[in-house]
């Protein structure tokens, strides 16, 4: 039996022959142009549309982008791994929000995760913009390449970050969580409970703006001493991380600090493990707040934490991207969403 040959893609030339018009006229109808040099009667437009439907013609998105026509596709590029090993991961809710908002406005999505042939994820892994087939792009991840951001801007390509991002020389649009307000509110909550010595477990490499500033604002507002404990927990072996957490807790407890805020959920779990190893009860002997933004990172209800509105950030990012596509001169488009504190039982009054 002979192998069945794949069906040839229907072209605009096929539509033109079947409708008895020129390919240029078919292009005008496909791209819904009404202000060009070619004038078409409504009867001819209807005939071409009917022929398109009968032949099953589907416009080539790459060709449409080449002539500046909208593809009705929104791109999503991630600098991080977004596919979970289990049922959940940190980025899933962003993508759910993006999908919800795109469906509401009738847009398709193109997900680009970069080539593995490069050391780091790159939007230009193959030398060209990986989102070029889409009308605009949504970017996820903290490891964005500044050179790529400048290149996108030079190309006039519209893009919006999910998460707050700043790069020198770029006016970036983003949908972000209000980490400043959320962290400041956490300080206020601890102060109301009676805490007067509250430390921040901080890192020089914090890709999320706002948490350190929120801590400083909260301490100033309530007249508290600043204690930002710089750590080197990133990129070291687990034994080294445990040893450093042990040293940090030794110093804080010796100085009678009764509450600790961490910039990441991973570091909050390290503090929790070390506190338990010492026989400390979180929420009684020591209060702990996770500013990492993922209340499920340690299991629901196990850590008092900021709740990052990830799904709504994805939805808002789509709305901002559509606004940017329609009115690029209005950039940058930015929105900050509330980031509430969710009680997980690791915050209580200071020990007597």
From TrEMBL:
By its UniProt entry, which InterPro entries does this protein fall under?
A: HTH_LacI, LacI/GalR-like_sensor, Lambda_DNA-bd_dom_sf, Peripla_BP_I
Q: Where is the signal peptide?
A: none
Q: Which residues form the HTH lacI-type domain?
A: 10-68
SUPFAM superfamilies per UniProt: lambda repressor-like DNA-binding domains, Periplasmic binding protein-like I
Q: Name one Pfam family in it.
A: LacI
Q: Which UniProt keywords apply?
A: DNA-binding, Repressor, Transcription, Transcription regulation
Q: Name one GO molecular function term.
A: transcription cis-regulatory region binding
Q: Does the keyword Transcription regulation apply?
A: yes
Cite the PANTHER family for this sequence.
HTH-TYPE TRANSCRIPTIONAL REPRESSOR PURR-RELATED (PTHR30146:SF148), LACI-RELATED TRANSCRIPTIONAL REPRESSOR (PTHR30146)
Its name, as the record gives it, is LacI family DNA-binding transcriptional regulator
């Amino acid at each position: 039996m002979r192998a069945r040959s794949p069906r040839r893609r229907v072209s605009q030339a096929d539509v033109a022959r079947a409708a008895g018009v020129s390919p240029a006229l078919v292009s005008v109808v496909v791209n819904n142009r009404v202000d060009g040099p070619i004038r078409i009667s409504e009867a001819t437009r209807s005939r071409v549309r009917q022929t398109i439907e009968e032949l099953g013609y589907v416009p080539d998105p790459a060709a449409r982008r080449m002539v500046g026509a909208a593809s009705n596709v929104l791109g999503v590029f991630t600098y991080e791994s977004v596919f979970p090993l289990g049922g959940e991961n940190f980025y899933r809710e962003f993508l759910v929000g993006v999908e919800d908002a795109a469906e509401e406005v009738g847009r398709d999505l193109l997900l680009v995760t970069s080539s593995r042939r490069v050391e780091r994820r790159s939007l230009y892994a193959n030398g060209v913009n990986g989102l070029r087939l889409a009308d605009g792009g949504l970017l996820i991840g903290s490891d964005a390449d500044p050179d790529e951001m400048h290149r996108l801007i030079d190309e006039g390509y519209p893009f919006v970050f999910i998460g707050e991002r700043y790069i020198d020389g770029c006016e970036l649009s983003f949908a972000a969580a209000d980490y400043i307000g959320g962290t400041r509110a956490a300080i206020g909550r601890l102060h109301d409970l009676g805490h007067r010595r509250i430390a921040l477990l901080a890192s020089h490499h914090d890709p999320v703006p706002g948490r350190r500033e929120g801590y400083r604002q909260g301490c100033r507002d309530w007249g508290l001493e600043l204690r930002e404990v710089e750590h080197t927990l990133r990129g070291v072996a687990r034994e080294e991380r445990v040893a450093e957490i042990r040293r940090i807790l030794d110093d804080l407890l010796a100085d009678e600090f009764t509450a600790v805020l961490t910039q990441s959920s991973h570091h909050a779990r390290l503090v929790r493990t070390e506190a338990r190893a010492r026989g400390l009860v979180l929420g009684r002997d020591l209060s702990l707040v996770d500013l990492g933004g993922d209340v499920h990172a340690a299991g629901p209800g196990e850590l008092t934490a900021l709740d990052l509105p990830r799904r709504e950030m994805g939805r808002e990012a789509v709305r901002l991207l559509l606004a940017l596509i329609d009115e690029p001169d209005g950039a940058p488009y930015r929105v900050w969403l509330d980031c509430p504190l969710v009680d997980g039982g690791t915050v209580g009054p200071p020990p007597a």
